[in-house]
């Protein structure tokens, strides 16, 4: 990922555009969160410490805390505006989360963290990293997990063909247009499509196939690795560190 493309996410304007105009329009977002929670629940042990990587406004951590209010969450992002949004959402929780400003692109991002964690999650963040760095990060996540801990990744992944990528884009545009219609924005479908095609963060996307990423997890030693949910370029996958 070009550094300038990544730096765009530190902009308060881009953060606000994503959180107000895109996040709520992601297709099947509720289903993705439900799958994440089901996989976490299937461990059948209390959720103690949770790490949310590239947390954005904290939507993943908020979902986990709704189901597991006793959990202690640590949220990491390299965008101060995103962390501000997460603080606004979660700062009043009975166990206030820890918020960490750190860049997943650098190997020392976790230096201030105190492992182990029972659960590590990430949503639509790691796809901004070059593939080699993705693989390194999966190794670092494995090291941060407690034995039996789980990593669940909600992510934008690569289509296997351009035709499928076009179908994926059409689904995203339709879902975003429906979201804007509910919000009363008055935007036409063509306006939404133009904004989506020319979105300022597009150059920061470095997509990898979900099958490839699952294999990277297996090679590191994760078990029960699978893609738990997928519709075109939106996937939920992950695995567990062996006990």
List descriptors.
globular, Rossmann fold, 7-stranded mixed beta sheet, alpha/beta, 243 residues, disordered N terminus, 9 helices
Written overview of the protein:
It is a single chain. The chain has 243 residues and is α/β, with parallel strands linked by helices. The chain has one domain (3-240): Vaccinia Virus protein VP39 (Rossmann fold, 3-Layer(aba) Sandwich). It has 9 helices and 7 strands. The chain has helices spanning 3-7, 12-21, 29-41, 59-67, 80-90, 131-144, 162-183, 189-197, 210-220, and strands spanning 49-53, 72-77, 98-101, 117-123, 145-156, 223-231, 234-240. It has a 7-stranded mixed sheet, sandwiched between helices. Strand 2 (72-77), helix 5 (80-90) and strand 3 (98-101) form a beta-alpha-beta unit. It is globular and about 50 Å long. The chain starts with a helix and ends with a strand. The model is unreliable at 1-5 and 8-21 (pLDDT under 50).
- Order of the strands making up the biggest sheet: 3-2-1-4-5-7-6
Instruction: Specify the helix fraction band.
Output: 40-55%
- Tell me, rounded to a whole number, the average pLDDT: 90
Shape: globular
The profile of the biggest β sheet is: 7 strands, mixed
Overall radius of gyration: 17 Å
Number of domains: 1
Our estimate of the beta-strand percent is 15-25%
Pick out the low-confidence regions.
1-5, 8-21
């Amino acid at each position: 990922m070009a550094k300038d493309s990544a730096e765009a996410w530190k902009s308060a304007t881009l953060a606000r555009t994503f959180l107000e105009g895109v996040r709520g329009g992601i297709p099947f977002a509720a289903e993705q969160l439900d799958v994440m929670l089901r996989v976490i629940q299937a461990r059948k042990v209390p959720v103690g410490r949770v790490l949310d990587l590239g947390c954005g406004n904290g939507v993943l951590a908020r979902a986990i805390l709704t189901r597991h209010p006793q959990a202690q969450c640590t949220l990491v992002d390299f965008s101060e505006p995103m962390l501000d949004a997460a603080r606004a959402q979660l700062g009043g929780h009975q166990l206030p989360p820890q918020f960490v400003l750190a860049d997943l692109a650098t190997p020392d991002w976790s230096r201030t963290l105190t492992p182990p964690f029972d659960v590590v999650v990430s949503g639509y963040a790691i796809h901004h990293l070059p593939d080699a760095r993705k693989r390194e990060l999966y190794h670092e996540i494995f090291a941060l997990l407690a034995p039996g801990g789980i990593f669940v990744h909600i992510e934008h992944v690569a289509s296997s063909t351009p035709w499928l990528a076009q179908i994926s884009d059409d689904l995203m545009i339709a879902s975003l247009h429906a979201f804007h219609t509910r919000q009363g924005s008055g935007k036409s479908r063509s306006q939404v499509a133009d904004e989506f095609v020319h979105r300022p963060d597009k150059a920061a996307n470095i997509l990898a196939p979900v099958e490839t990423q699952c294999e990277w997890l297996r090679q590191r030693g994760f078990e029960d690795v699978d893609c738990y949910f997928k519709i075109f370029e939106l996937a939920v996958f992950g695995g567990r560190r062996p006990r």
